[in-house]
Amino acid sequence: MTARPEAERALWTENKPSRGWFQGLDVRELLRYRELVLFFAVKELKVRYKQTLFGVGWALIQPLAAMAIFSVVFGSFAGLPSDGLPYEVFVFAGVGLWLYFSNAIRIASESLVEDASLVTKVYFPRMLAPAGAVLPGLVDLAISLVVVAVLMALFGVAPGAALLLLPVWIGATVLIALGAGLWLSALNVLYRDIRSIVPFLLQVWLFASPVVFPSSLIDDSPEKQLYALNPLVGVLDGFRWSLLDAPPPGAEDLLSLASGVLLLVTGLAYFRHAERQFADQI
Amino acid sequence: MAAAIVTEGLGKRYRLGERGDAYGTLRSALSGAMRRRHSREQLWALRDVDLVVEQGEVVGVIGRNGAGKTTLLKLITRITEPTTGVARMRGRVGALLEVGTGFHFELTGRENVFFNGAVLGMSRAEIERRFDEIVEFAGVGRFLDTPLKRYSAGMYLRLAFSVAAHLEPDIVIVDEVLAVGDAEFRHRCTQRMAELQREQRTILLVSHDLAALQNLCARSILLDRGRVRADGPTEEVVRLYLSEVAEGSAAVLEGRAGQPVELRGVQLTDAAGRPSPAPRRDDPLVIRLDVEVRERMPDLDLSVTLLDERGVRLLNDALSDNREAPGIGHPGSYRVSLTLEPLLAAGRYTLGVWLGTATDDYFRGEVLSFELLPAARDREHPFDRPRLADPPLTWDVAPLGERVAL
User: Fold this and answer.
1) A121: which chain B residues are within 8 Å (Cβ-Cβ)?
2) pTM for the structure as a whole
3) How do the domains of chain B map onto residue ranges?
4) Where do the structural domains in chain A lie, given as residue ranges?
5) Which DSSP string do the residues of A142-161 spell out, in sequence order?
6) Strand partners, B358
């Protein structure tokens, strides 16, 4: 090939062996395919509610049922503290965000494996599939936020000025879910063990996160640093602070956010490393 | 002319067991990590491929099962990464390796058109602009808001193909899609290909339909065990390919492990079932196929093609064309026989077999070539008249009156 003019060169795409571990992100290509993220998300939403009796009602039933159970078991029987808030309101806010997170991860981890022909028969930037999978849950989250507002009115809980930061916590949760989703979806292509691990992982993750208890419960225990490594701790504390005017996040929440960033960065790196084998291995 | 596809030293190596094998488990990965350094058996699916395809060229890719055709397409479409070399493509690449990729049976026709279009690389605006055309072409207008699971196989195929046909890529990659569907559908496919060709798009086409390739492509590439065996005018490449199909009256085939269906062997016999190494054109010829079916597949079908030396399909008959014959949809071993009454002229023929369903190919390829010898009485004729068919015909001459010689 002879040298090509610059304008023309832009039109060429290349496929050659990738070298090294870190592939970087082809941002230009991701932008070119950006619509596909939404298509993945919309498809997931549509498929979920086809031929269901309650349809979107499930977005209400799931968190309400969880709240009822948790309120009875952890609020009444176990008598867990709730930072001075009514336990129902406290736990519902946590459950709403948690259900978003756990559903996003479940769907994302299956996003590539679910339809292998998407990987073996067409080309698209592979990370768009898990990225699309963490979005539809936002609809359910929005619905449960409405319910939180109703509960707050009923129990007389008012938000503070930190309410303005609410989108930040939700955005951070999406990115953490994306980080975990990238890891799990890529691993799932290579090792189907992931399928069995995810439910177990989520169960452990639920009780390692301040969903049914407040972070203040662990304040004085020596495991505090370990606890703060969980990226969900920061966003859950921040989420309740913004929404319910709970105590503001502490220093350990910074550690939690940092580990969230780490999860996302390593997720991107691992995904880019693993994706070259997807079509051959799926 | 500018190049549209350039490959340099392109190669793809699979570790045996990676392909076709069940997916990995953590345990095998952990134990494999120890052994990985000591190389496992490896297979070059494609090796040292240097190609230049000019813009607007239509190039056919020919080769036996496992010759590397699909691997080549997957490298050019960037579905998988090469082990060596590089493939460069200019402009948008649209691939049609399967119809209906990403289709979801719970979604309606309309919803599927949008998602499938997006997966194939169309923007939302593009799909909206061409939506009516797509629906019209597929002829499923009334069922647009019906879930796909209520579609017939034919409707499904038409809709899927219609979306793909309305892509407007600079480079079109097609794998064997022309082979599925009914006659009208195939006709539309061919028509659309010709249209794309007129629009100066670059087309790379894998097909076992050698005659169609000769109509569509001026140039073809023959792949053999991962390497380019020949590259030139389609007619010559087809001739070379057919001349290399195993000669003889029987072929034993090694199927891929884990396939739900396998073609085990092919044999030419006479009417009594005896192997017929040197069949004559005036003897009935029986084509016997041994098939092993491992899973229940109600719509499993099988077809036999007979090609002449130029790749023209003289016969193309499917088991399902014959309503009396029992199917092969239940698990078990089958011996399928097709009897050919004397029809063909003496000459060299290649036998092709296809085994599959409306949506999946399990086997497709030329399995053996053979010489059909002249009939005993033919030797009396001094001339060899060119002809395709030579069935028993009846001539009759009836004198209508005698002309009196003066």
Assistant:
1) 79, 95, 97-98, 101
2) 0.80
3) 3-22+40-243, 250-378
4) 54-281
5) HHHHHHHHHHHHHHT----G
6) none
Residues of A in contact with B80 (CB under 8 A): 276, 279-280
Say how far apart CA A11 and CA B35 lie, in whole Å: 42
Please check whether residue B43 touches A, CB under 8 A.
no
Of A8, A118, A276, the CB nearest to B81: A276
- Helices A166-190, A193-207: inter-axial angle, 10-degree rounding: 150
- What digits encode the pLDDT tens for the residues B167-203? 888 898 888 765 555 667 777 777 888 888 888 899 9
Among 2.70.50.60, 3.60.15.10, 3.40.1440.10, 2.170.150.70, name the CATH number for the domain at B250-378. 2.70.50.60
Phi, psi of A142 (to 5 degrees): -60, -40
User: In CATH, what number does B3-22+40-243 get?
Assistant: 3.40.50.300
> What is the spatial distance between Cα A255 and Cα A224, in angstroms, rounded to a whole number?
11
ipTM rounded to 2 decimals: 0.84
CA distances from B318 to B183, B335, B352 (A): 13, 15, 12
Q: Give CA separation, B301 vs B315, B327, B363, in Å.
A: 16, 8, 11
A191 and B106: CB-CB below 8 Å?
no
* Partner A contacted by B3 (CB < 8 A): yes
CB-CB contact of B290 with B263 (8 Å): yes
Chain B's closest residue to A120, CA to CA, is B79
C-alpha B247/C-alpha B348 separation (Å) is 10
- CA B337 vs CA B285, B328, B358: distances in Å: 10, 12, 22
How many CB atoms are closer than 10 A to CB B108? Answer: 19
pLDDT digits (tens, 9 = 90+) for A244-276: 999 998 888 999 999 999 999 999 999 999 998
Task: Name the residue with tokens 């072409």.
Answer: B137
Least Cα separation, residue A207 to chain B (angstroms): 26
Q: For helices A87-110 and A58-70, what crossing angle results, to 10°?
A: 130
Residue among A130, A128, A141, A140 nearest A106 (CA): A130
Kindly report the number of other CB atoms within 10 A of residue B254's CB atom.
Answer: 9
